[in-house]
Design a protein that fits this description.
With 611 residues, the chain is of the alpha+beta class. The protein contains 20 helices and 21 strands. It folds into four domains: 194 residues, Histidine kinase-like ATPase, C-terminal domain (Heat Shock Protein 90), CATH 3.30.565; 125 residues, Ribosomal Protein S5, domain 2; 78 residues, Rossmann fold (3-Layer(aba) Sandwich); 111 residues, Heat shock protein 90, C-terminal domain (Four Helix Bundle (Hemerythrin (Met), subunit A), Up-down Bundle). Strand 3 and strand 4 form a beta hairpin. The chain binds adenosine-5'-triphosphate (ATP). The site of adenosine-5'-triphosphate (ATP) has 23 residues, from helix 2 and helix 3.
Length: 611
């Protein structure tokens, strides 16, 4: 061997065919899609020269008692002997693209030159009888999965077109059954432009229907409402009540966005059905619409997107991004028009799909401005639309988290503050941006500690009277880094309110985590919490308007006070939905036991106070 000998890669043809036919596709059932696609492309090619030729595709299965044989017959362009050698028998060669440019747009569905190989998933031989529409002899081609093929001239002349025969290989029987064929032809080919008929016991039956006008002109869908809804039910399986027609500016992608009858989970998969050049590509296409559009299920047809070789996905390229943007815009602008011309219709959609609408409103201020008044929020006066809330209350408060909301909502409500729960997804962002879309709206984030600003201070005399007891109560809660403040506030049924600053809240969470953590992690957390030791104290507000607190303090220094304060502290934690640490739980346990004990021997206890 000299230093510069050149060699050629060798191809193991059988191995290549095995990879392409058995491992590229998600299921053997796609063989039917590939055959349909070739038949449709052949008819399209013939109509390019003979525009008046009427396409027809027929499928039947024979072979009672033995292995079934499927035949698919088209009256398309057919193949000459030269075509067979060049296209049918060369893997990766296709008559449907110009030159070697895969990206070049054509009117055909196929372009890779590998689709026919999928037939080897269900059959050990592909037999093709063909007559070219351009003349020449009728031919028979037989191809095998080991990469060999034969060609024979037929004695009789066939009508122009092609018949493909597949004999079922053992294990593939299910893919030749009548029921499978009928449902799969409809599944893949419901939108194909030529009649596809299947042989049944009653004769040939057309499986796909004539295409309605609104497939070509989606803007006409509105005047064919019943038909559009019926197609939606047949193809997508849901009973829809409303839809939005979709169309891109080029007119090369169109569709119908059916509005889902019920609200869906944010993480639910968006299962849109997408057709490329009228052939089903995917029923799980998730990336064809913007993220926020999870309230619709779509039928989309396109002739401009590019398929990957598996033919089940689109390339995520600029074109897809553009189409996605335009389809999203079609939905958005229909919603905007509804706000102006059919607010009831929009309100019904928002009623079931508030989350989707909020997702879009967060992304798009203009949209938010148009629809904010119908968006529902959870507030201290109940579930309300923003419009209603703003009508009655100029100043709205909102919280950042659900916990904060729970901690203060009943107290805030008693002070006549209207608090919106910002803890649900998108609500905090939307509330904070409300002034941008509604003139004069005043919004303010409310922290648990803020509600105390509305509490009433004690008079100087009350302060003197309760000084000793307050000091003792304060000392009792030192170990919980909590100070006690005696105030008057509403509601009077509430004896105590626990609030803490952001820093002391962080410290509290850290310490709780530390309790549950492993030794190593716990020491790391220990270092972190050391840095927060100066975080300041939490506050337990005791409500002198509450009859029990009032009695507790009026009786001055007494034996029951320390344990009562601790119990009020843990009770306030529970009311505020704060998780409790071990020490607090043990206070709760021993406190309950002690109070029961006191109750049982009430004659004996010191203060004579019953709580
Ligand atoms: N029914 C048919 N009528 C006429 N020509 C056909 C027919 N079926 C296949 N062919 C020819 O065989 C070639 C190879 O077909 P194959 O299905 O493997 O690939 P393709 O359709 O070109 O591309 P793709 O892999 O994207 O489907 C086609 O390009 C076409 O020239």
């Amino acid at each position: 061997m000299s230093q510069h000998d050149n060699y050629r890669f060798q191809v193991n043809l059988g191995g290549m065919i095995d990879i392409l036919s058995n491992h590229l596709y998600s299921s053997p059932k796609v063989y039917l899609r590939e055959l349909l696609q070739n038949a449709v492309d052949a008819v399209t090619a013939r109509r390019e020269n003979e525009p008046l030729a009427e396409g027809s595709i027929k499928i039947d299965v024979t072979g009672a008692g033995g292995p079934a044989t499927l035949t698919i017959q088209d009256n398309g362009i057919g193949l000459t002997e030269e075509n067979i050698h060049e296209f049918l028998a060369v893997i990766g060669q296709s008559s449907k693209r110009s030159g070697d440019l895969l990206a070049q747009p054509t009117s055909f569905i196929g372009r890779f030159g590998i689709g026919l190989l999928s037939c080897f998933m269900v059959s050990d031989e592909i037999v093709v009888l063909t007559q070219s529409a351009k003349g020449g002899p009728s031919l028979e081609w037989r191809g095998k999965p080991d990469g060999t093929y034969s060609i024979r001239k037929l004695d009789t002349e066939l009508t122009p077109g092609t018949r493909v025969f597949l004999r079922c290989k053992p294990g593939s029987e299910a893919y030749f059954e009548q029921e499978f064929l009928e449902s799969s032809i409809y599944y893949y080919g419901a939108l194909l432009p030529y009649p596809i008929t299947l042989q049944t016991e009653q004769g040939f039956k057309q499986i796909n229907e004539a295409l309605p006008i609104w497939i070509k002109h989606p803007d006409m869908a509105r005047s064919h409402k019943a038909e559009v809804l019926a197609w939606g039910e047949r193809l997508l399986g849901d009973r829809f009540k409303d839809f939005i027609p979709l169309q891109t500016a080029s007119g090369r992608t169109g569709g119908i966005a059916y509005i889902l009858p019920q609200g869906v989970n944010l993480n639910a998969k968006r299962a849109h059905r997408v057709y490329l050049k009228n052939m089903l590509v995917s029923e799980k296409a998730e990336n064809i619409l913007p993220e926020w559009a999870f309230f619709v299920k779509c039928l989309i047809w396109s002739d401009e997107l590019q398929l990957t070789a598996s033919r089940e996905h689109f390339y995520e390229n600029d074109q897809l991004e553009e189409v996605r943007g335009e389809l999203g815009e079609a939905i958005r602008s229909e919603l905007m028009t509804m706000a102006e011309l059919a607010p009831d219709r929009l309100q019904a959609i928002i009623g079931s799909h508030a989350l989707s609408m909020k997702a879009l409103a967060v992304e798009d201020e203009q949209f938010y401005r148009i629809i904010y008044r119908w968006l529902p929020f959870h507030s201290s006066i109940g579930q309300r639309e923003l419009g209603e809330l703003l009508q009655e209350h100029k100043h709205l408060y909102y919280t950042l988290t659900l916990d904060e909301y729970r901690q203060i909502t009943h107290v805030a409500a008693a002070q006549s503050l209207v608090v919106v729960n910002g803890g649900y997804i998108y609500d905090y962002e939307l509330m904070s941006r409300l002034p941008l879309v509604h003139n004069g709206a005043e919004v303010e984030r409310l922290l648990p500690e803020d509600v105390s600003f509305t509490f009433t201070d004690l008079t100087a005399e009350e302060r003197r009277n309760y000084y000793e007891a307050t000091r003792e109560a304060d000392a009792v809660l030192q170990e919980f880094r909590t100070q006690v403040q005696l105030k008057r506030f509403k509601p009077s049924e509430l004896p105590a309110l626990y609030t803490l600053s952001k820093e002391s809240s962080d410290l509290r969470s850290l310490e709780l985590t530390r309790e549950a953590a492993t030794d190593l992690f716990s020491s790391v957390l220990g270092n972190l919490s050391a840095g927060l030791q100066n975080a300041g104290y939490a506050t337990l507000y005791l409500n002198l308007d509450n009859p029990v607190i009032s009695r507790l303090f009026q009786s001055g220094k007494n034996a029951i006070l320390p344990i009562a304060i601790k119990m009020l502290y843990v009770n306030a934690l529970m009311m505020g939905h704060y998780p409790m640490n071990r020490q607090e739980l043990s206070v709760l346990n021993s406190g309950i036991i002690q109070f029961i004990d006191w109750g049982l021997s009430s004659k004996d206890h010191n203060g004579g106070t019953t709580v």
